Hints:
single chain, alpha/beta, Beta-Lactamase, Heat Shock Protein 90, five-stranded antiparallel sheet, about 50% helix
Amino acid sequence: MTLHVRLILITFVILIITSFATAIIYYNLTGQLLFKFQSQNILNSTNNFVFTFQNTLEKTDEDFSKLTNKLGDFKNINLDSTNIDFIFSLENDSLISNINFKVKKNSFLNFRSRSFRQLFVDNPNIVLKYINYKNEIYYYGFLISSEFLDNISEKIGADVALIINDSPVEISKTNKNQQYLLTIVNAINSLKFKNNYDIYSEELDNSDFEAAKITPHQILTPGGKISFIVFNTFQEGVSFREILRNVIIIIVIAGSALTFIVVLLFTTKLRKQISLLSLAAETIKQGNLQHRVPVISRDELGKLAETFNSMLDEINKKEEAEKDYAEFITLINQSPTLKEISEAALSKIIKSTNLTFGVLYLADENNLRLISSYGIGKNVIRPTQNPDLYINVIEKKEVIEFNFIENFPEIRTGLTSIKIKYILIYPIIYNKETIAILELASESEPLRNVKDYLNRIQEQLAIGLANAKSLEQLENFVQELKRLNEEYQKQNKQILEQNEELKELHKQINEKAIELEKQRLKAVELTKVKSQFLASMSHELRTPLISILGLTELILKDDFTPEKSKERIKIVYRNGKKLLSMITNILEFSKLESGRIEIKKDNFLLNDLLEEIKQNIEPITNEKKLRFILQHPVGKNILINTDKSKLEQILNNLLTNAVKFTEKGEIKLTVDTEGEKGLKITVSDTGIGISEENLQMIFSEFRQIDGSISRKYGGVGLGLTITKRYIEMLGGELHVKSEVNKGTEFTFTIRDIILDVIESQEQKFLSLNEEKNNSPYKSILIYCTNPETKKFISDYLHSYNYNVVPFTPEEINKLNWELGTQDTIIFCSDDNSENIWKLIIDFKSHLTTRDYGIIIISILEKEKVGWMLPLHEFWIKPLSKNDILKSINKIETFAENKTSKIFYCSPNKEEFTITFGSEPVANEINFCSNMNQLMNQLNKNTLQIVIIDFDFFGTEALRFLFDISHYKMTKNVYPIFYCSKNISDIDSATLSNVLSQLTLKSKNHPLDVLKDLKDRLKIDENILNEKQKLIEETEYDKYADDVAKQSSNSKHTILIVDDDPDTLFTIGEIVKEMNYDTIFAHNGMECLVMLNHVKPDLILLDIMMPQMDGFETIKRIRSDNRFSAIPVVALTAYAMLDNKDVVTKNGFNDLVTKPINSSLLESKINYYLRSKVSL
Length: 1175
């Protein structure tokens, strides 16, 4: 079927559908109008029925009213002329009276029974009314019969059906309407649940049926539910619809014919244009792209034909472009080298775009290299004249196009000059990088879109150039490879020659190796001889030394030995035992080297061994004021099988080593089981520690970590070597962990040595907490950012058996364990402590540290001044009565007195009332609103506690502390600060600044701070240990008292400074034999403290000391003008420092080496004391 036939057919179908739709709409609209007319008619009849029925009811009541005067005589009542069909009364409320009973003559009432109820069963279509007349109820009414309905039907112009209990009972015009009985039933069912006046409609074969339902109210119908159907039939509707259908059919047929004729006339050009388009499409299908469609109309189809022709033009252009593209690709593939491909590509581009000139550059890191040109000489081309233009093309990959209208650039040839009107600079991009630039020019506007053409060929041109460039580089690489290969051949020849030389060297090396093996065997033999010699020598040394120690011990036990001699012999005995230990180690090592050590296992109880170890170690730990902690399974005694002597020596070596390298803190021995039969033992200390790189060195024989000037611990470096060997012989492994300045931990495990674990009720050793509590040391925390100040305070407290624990703010959670027997912390402020007040508040806010006492010290290192704040407590708000009671108890215990007054200084009196309440905490409590009022009320004779609101008074509170610390009248005042948890950085800095100002104003020396600290901690100077008792008159305050005595004494005073007590005693004895007074100091710090109290005539100063060595000490002595004239003689045991020039350059006057030659020392002392004035 052709297109124009389908077009006519579609138009005809649309018209038919439209006609039918219009007819249906017209038919429905006309039907709706007819239905509306019929509905309105039936509604009018229904209203008339309601009105007529209501009039009947009213007429019945009027008729009854007229008969009321005859109710006493029913026989004379005549109902024929009334609407009433019956009147009666009841007997016994259920039977119809025989006397009072009257029925209309023509009535069809059924009175077969006197029963009142049966009356309604037999006559359901009656309307009953009643009235109470003279105390008796009379019933009257009428019967709704077909005659009654006929009468109403005539009045309303419609038929009526009586419905009782949804069933038709009576109907008007029975003979006529009997045929509609089924339709009435349908209307009843449809309108059953609808409202009055709702319409029911139904089209019958010969008429239209319209009905409405009415249910009367306010009437009594005992026979059942009564309603009425008012209906009517209309024959006119059927005839009207028949005529309407015939008219619609005629209209549809006539319209379709007329439309078909019109379509044929008006679509002639349209159909012809479509035929031409179809013919053109078929022609193009056969490959003829030159055919064009004739345009014979100017409508949409005409425009379609024009578009079709334009499409053919574009197809022709694309075909030509694809042909050019294919020719370009073929050209690129035929030219392998960079020069060939560039010239061929440029020539093809110029011809395809109809331009005149062209240049192709190769881009390499913003540098352009000309590789081809067309229509212009290479000597004319200068791309560097405008480099920015090309750089933008390379970096930003922009296409630059110029169309000149005037001021044309010119290209000069040999004959003439050509004005350029068009220039295009185009980047050639490969892998997102510009590898080349194409520059084209023409003396006229281009005939085609040059950029579109270049966009199509750009990718293939880039690939071709990149491949050609790679090929060029490959050729260069091949040439370079050939060159290198030639060099390699030359080198290979040299290598062959050198190989011969290596063979000769290898022969010589083998000969040397044989010689070295002989030397190694000889060295092994020498080592064996050395070990035998060491064993023999050690044995020969031990024999006389044991005799010496035995006789020395007998002399010590002899009661007739003078006390002074006993002291000297004790030193001999102690150093003899050290020498014996070294010799024993050398002897053991020689046995290990020679393989003469045997393991002798036996059974013994571990607790017995630990008890012996404890008895051996505790004396040397007590001597150095160290804590010794022994931890092992409580309530258990372990039976083990191993070499007891070797295990004992292992433990003694590890523990004595730990004591040797620990100046303060603790030594801990931990014993535990490992598995079922293994034993794990750990020895840890808090000593100097070992660095990571030195951990392996410590197990080498005759090796020690520190061989420099500061080594002072002695030994020959065999203890750990022997220990490791013994542990391995017992089947164990030794491991070590250490951290410099924090301590070392040695752990070894011996497997399969436990025979049995015996439960024991005795606990022979103290636990960790008991050991800590029974320790002679007290612990005190210190926070100080200045290392020198912290060391100054720590050394002073350490001399009084305090274990000083430095801490950082992050370590607050660990403080419960660290403190032990003391619950005090020292906060030290300096020039850099701006946030010390924030730290104090954080510390007192923490649950675990809020009850600790605090001491606040300010020391300015540069100015050499210090001040300890007389502050006794620092609480955080809210302040409770319990906090105050704690503070009162602490202060009364410290002052050994009872509180007489409490001053509460705050601007908030309500807070004061809430805090103290009604129960007094002291005899007298006074409230002060300002600091002046407080100062005026203080009493110098009684103990007074002052509670100050630090939030409000701040800097005034600090000045108050300064005032009471400098006036004797306020020495019994004990201040307490309280503040909130939050303090700003600005407030903290302000408080620190004021504290520094007050410290400068106090003009106290840092030594005065130490004295105040001693008073605050109530340090008893009688607690100094035996080593301090050995040194004569070392208490600082006594030195101050002795200054006056010594000033009047003609004897010279010599200050001896050395960390070894035996050396102090020995030199002291030599000096005393010379009849000079002696003063002793254990280190450089104590030396400086001594000099602040006593000015000696000569100082003997050891160079190698802990805490502060001799060089640092002499530097500080010479920097103080008070001591610059005092001669100082250096003491050293190191050969490297026996050069006098080394020590004199550092400020010493002379040098004496150890061991001390008494004659030489006496000579030096006499020389400097005689020459003191000249020095």
